[in-house]
Structures are given as C-alpha cells and as structure tokens.
C-alpha cells in the first residue's frame, strides 16, 4: 500500500511542498510524502519504474535513473512519462548507452552526471545530448587511478 516502502534507494527534500520524494524501488514507483505531522501515506508521482537515483533541478524538474530500462528521464512533477536525458538505447557500454545507472547529479546547466555502475564509469550527459562523455573510470573495473569499481554515489563540486 501507499503507507509502506520496500527498499527505498534515494530520497530528496522538495522544499516547495515541504515533502520527501522517495525512490521506492521494489514497489517500482517514486512517491511523495509530506513532512507535516500526521502523514500516514504517500502519493505516487511515477509508477512502473525500476528507480534507483533521484535529483531535482532549480526549476523543480525531477530526474530519475531507471536500472530496468538503463536510462535517466526528466519529469515535470505530475507527469508520468518524462523526457529521456541519458541512455535509452538499451543496456550496453556504448557512449549512447548505460548499464545499471544508479545515482545522479544535475548541475546548473542541466548537465546530468550518472553513476554508470556496471560499466565502471561516471558519465556526463550535456543537455539535449544524444550520447554521454566518460568523466571518470571507463577502463574496466579495478583499483588503478584510471579505474572505478561499480561506482554508486556521485557529487559534482
């Protein structure tokens, strides 16, 4: 039910609505829970998505990684379809593909940074780009300075 979460993988605070936006992975949905006391259940923002990571830009667009479709989409709140911003060409290692995208970071120019975990790399997708740029790793999994091993969380400074 909407009063339960199963394997939440990411959460962010929507200051405008004073609510939490949560990636409810096993239930395959993104939900919003009010932070006001007395809240006993959430509301579904996006359903039927194998979500992992969330990010929000200053215009309140929500970015969600989907490990099932190996892509990242940008959603206007209230929109269940979204716009493809990274991946979307099936699972793979090409520059236009992702393989198990987990966490995200979106900068002020709306460039999307993605932990492309199973490809052992971090990708940057410029706004409206059809393929990404490897910004870290991409030399196979390992411990050398040119390698990453299944990167998860990222932050761009």
Number of domains: 1
Please tell me how large the radius of gyration is. 15 Å
Detail the poorly predicted runs: none
Biggest sheet, open or closed, and with what strands and sense? Answer: 4 strands, antiparallel
* Number of strand elements: 12
Shape: globular
CATH architecture: 6 Propeller
Structural class by SSE content: mainly beta
Task: Kindly report how far apart the N and C termini lie.
Answer: 38 Å
Q: What's the mean pLDDT score? A: 95
CATH fold node name: Neuraminidase
Secondary-structure element order, N to C: EEEEEEEEEEEE
β-strand percent reads 35-45%
Helical stretch count?
Answer: 0
**CATH homology group:** TolB, C-terminal domain
List keywords for this structure.
signal; 157 residues; mainly beta; NHL repeat-containing protein; NHL_repeat; 4-stranded antiparallel beta sheet; globular; glycoprotein; 6-blade_b-propeller_TolB-like
